[in-house]
Fold this sequence. Notes:
Number of strands: 7
Structural class: alpha+beta
Radius of gyration: 18 Å
Mean pLDDT: 87
Largest sheet: 7 strands, antiparallel
Helix content: 25-40%
Strand content: 25-35%
Order of helices and strands: HEHHEHEEHEEEH
Shape: globular
Number of helices: 6
Amino acid sequence: MSKFKQIYQSALDNADWQLTENIHLNQPQLQSWLQENGSLSRRFARYCHQFSVLLLAQEPIKASSLQPDEQAMLGPVDCLERIVLLHGDGVPWVFGRTLIPVPTMTGEEQDIARLGESPLGYRVFTDQSARRDALQLARLTVNDDVLWARRSRLWVKEKPMLVAELFLAPAPVYQDNSAIQRHITGVIGQRESRPLRTKVGE
Length: 202
């Protein structure tokens, strides 16, 4: 078992999930990330040169193995469990676990089971029907780091999946606006300074 999966999965399993209205955040930047309604992957990609996904595990899970609160959000259905690490420039930023009910992976959504190391958010939010609800937050202590996690239900064509995301210490979620702006400026400047590559004859 991956050390990331062992440590971070345990943290998510023991999370005390709270509705967003029951948690008062005094940090607008952090709140903006935790309550992001669109694709988190696309937002992260703006803060690095290379955004990537590492697939740690993907396997079927029986309905009887779901937690009661997971069954309450998805129903008593067999699922595909997808566990990933999201990286920015090779640095782990987010540990993610998604439960995808078998009935969700039908019709045009059959490809979700074959995403591999492609971001789930890229796939889901290309569909105009995509939406997010049932957002919950949790504050966790992992290896002496105080971290935030969120859990929400994604819908595509009215078919649900449950996504839990643990924001790791190096993630831009915890940086202040000025630090993030300096990083974005640096990334844009380096991209603009790269020489253009053209084919012979162009």
